[in-house]
Amino acid sequence: MTAALEVRDLCRSFGALNVTRDVNMTLDTGARHALIGPNGAGKTTLINLITGVLPPDSGAVFVGGRDITRLDQAARVKTGLCRTFQINQLFRALTVLENVALSIAERRGRGSALFRPFSRNTDVVDEAMALLARLGLAEDALTPVAALAYGGQRLVEIAITLGQRPTVLLLDEPAAGVPSAESHLLLDLLETLPDDIAILIIEHDMDVVFRFAERVTVLVDGAVLVEDTPANIAENADVRAVYLGERRDG
Ligand SMILES: Nc1ncnc2c1ncn2[C@@H]1O[C@H](COP(=O)(O)OP(=O)(O)OP(=O)(O)O)[C@@H](O)[C@H]1O
Ligand SMILES: [Mg+2]
Q1: Are 14 and 180 in contact (CB under 8 A)?
Q2: Which of 18, 139, 162, 209 is least buried, going by the fewest C-beta atoms within 10 A?
Q3: Is this structure's pTM higher than 0.85?
Q4: What is the mean pLDDT of the chain?
C-alpha cells in the first residue's frame, strides 16, 4: 500500500543546532499517529519541514507516493497535505460559516467568487454547512469567530482545514490554550474525522494521545527515540526516563 505520508531521512539544522536528525516516519491511509517529545525536541520544526514552511537540508517528503519536497506550501496543500491554521489566520470578524466557506471556495478555485453574495455560492455554502453539521458546529455557523470561546476557535481551525479535503492532516497542539473543561470537545471532534484521512497530532496531553493515537513516535533532541503502540510507549523505560528527567529538571 502506498503511504499517505512518508518522511525519509529528513535533516535540518539551525547553525550548529541539529533540530531534525535523520527522521523517518510513515503514515498509512487513515493513520492516527501522535508525535510526542519534550519541549524543544523539534516537533514543530518537523511539521514545518513536512509542510514546506522550512526547506530541509537533506531528505524527502512523499504524499501518496509523490515526492513533494520541492513544492511550495500552497502546492503541497493541493496534494492533500494540510495543517491547522494558526489562530491569527482565522478571519475573526467573519462568521464560522464564512470562514469555512472561504476555505471551500479556495479549494474549488473560486477565491474571487467570494466577493459575490453568498446566495450565488449556494453549493459552497451547502458544503460548508454540511461540514459544520458533521463536526457538531452547526449551532455556531452564524457566530463571528471572535465571539467564540478559545476552544471553539480551535475547532473552527480544524473545520477550515477539512474544507481543503486533506488526505493528510497535521495538528500542532490543537488543545494548547484550551481550558480543560473544553478539551473533551476537541477529542469528540477528532473522533468524528473521516477514516480515510491520515492524521498526525502533536500533543502534550497524554490523555488525548492515548485516546486518539494508534501509533506514537517519540522525538528527542531532533531524532526518533522510538515508535510504537501507545501501550508499549507507556511501558517503555527510555521514554519514561526522558519524561521523568524532564519533570525533575522542570
Ligand atoms: N527558526 C529557528 N531558528 C533557530 N532555532 C530554531 C528555529 N526554530 C526552532 N528552533 C530551535 O529548534 C529546536 C526545536 O524547536 P521546535 O519548535 O521544533 O520544538 P518543539 O518540539 O515543537 O517544542 P515545543 O514542545 O516547545 O513546541 C529548539 O531548540 C528551538 O529553539
Ligand atoms: Mg512545538
Answers
A1: no
A2: 139
A3: yes
A4: 90
Expressed in angstroms and rounded, the spacing between residue 85 Cα and the centre of ligand 2 is 14
Nearest CA to ligand 1 atom 31: 40
What is the residue with the minimal CA distance to atom 12 of ligand 1?
A: 19
8-state DSSP, 95: B
Sorted by where each starts, the structural domains of the chain and their CATH numbers stand as 5-85+166-249 (3.40.50.300)
**Using CA atoms, how far apart are residues 155 and 161, in angstroms rounded to an integer?**
10
Q: Return the residue whose CA atom lies nearest to atom 26 of ligand 1.
A: 39
Ligand nearest to the CA of 45: 1
Q: Which residue has the cell 539544522?
A: 13
List residues near ligand 1 (CB under 6 A): 14, 17, 19, 37, 39-45
The C-alpha atoms of residue 132 and residue 138 are separated, in whole angstroms, by: 5
pLDDT tens sequence across 95-146: 999 999 999 988 888 766 555 666 667 889 999 999 999 988 999 999 999 9
Spatial neighbors of 238 by CB under 8 A, at least 6 apart, are 225, 226
